[in-house]
Design a protein that fits this description.
Length: 186
């Protein structure tokens, strides 16, 4: 059974589901690494920030309610940004009274760089996780058309398929990608 991200978020509520949590971690860890680097974390601090975010999500996601009118990405980015600020604060002045402000709004909600980076990272990771679900010819047909921009006729000739089979392969992979990213690709 393939879990769409909206369903994945719902499955992370309540009872602990190791498979759902592993899927979430596999999907979002590379993105969190990228965001940490963009925030200016040193290479040594990036894993610490990602770990801090994931540890916080273990606590927050069971109570998280997905609202389709709001952006999960923006919320997650705000969590990552606030964890980064907390790590910086602790590095500057360790203080046991330093309060976490994980629910503060993101200071740069409309930054187009974050949007492009988010979409690229999430799509790339989702495609990597999905590849095993398809026959190699189906996967390659879609990849050649979508990523490399080759016409269906050329791809069909290269793979020994009909152009119709190439269109079907492309359609199946892209449909599955849309399912995988449903609700998280605002």
């Amino acid at each position: 059974m393939h879990t769409t991200p909206v369903t994945l978020l719902e499955r992370l509520r309540g009872t602990v589901d190791d498979a759902s949590w592993q899927r979430f971690v596999s999907l979002y860890t590379p993105l969190l690494y990228s965001w940490a680097q963009r925030l200016g974390c040193t290479e040594a601090d990036v894993p610490d920030l990602v770990q801090e975010v994931l540890l916080l999500l273990v606590v927050k996601l069971p109570a998280f309610t997905y609202d389709p009118s709001r952006s999960f990405r923006a919320w997650l980015r705000a969590v990552a940004h606030n964890r980064w600020r907390n790590l910086q604060r602790r590095a500057r002045l360790p203080d046991a009274n330093d309060l976490a402000d994980d629910d503060l709004p993101d200071p740069h909600p409309a930054d187009p760089f974050w949007e492009v980076d988010y979409r690229r990272q999430l799509a790339s990771r989702a495609l990597t996780l999905m590849q095993a679900e398809f026959e190699p010819a189906t996967w390659r047909a879609c990849l050649e058309c979508v990523v490399h921009g080759k016409p269906a006729r050329q791809v069909a000739d290269e793979l020994g398929l009909s152009p119709g089979a190439v269109y079907v392969a492309k359609s199946r992979v892209l449909k599955r990608l849309r399912q995988e990213l449903a609700g998280l690709w605002e």
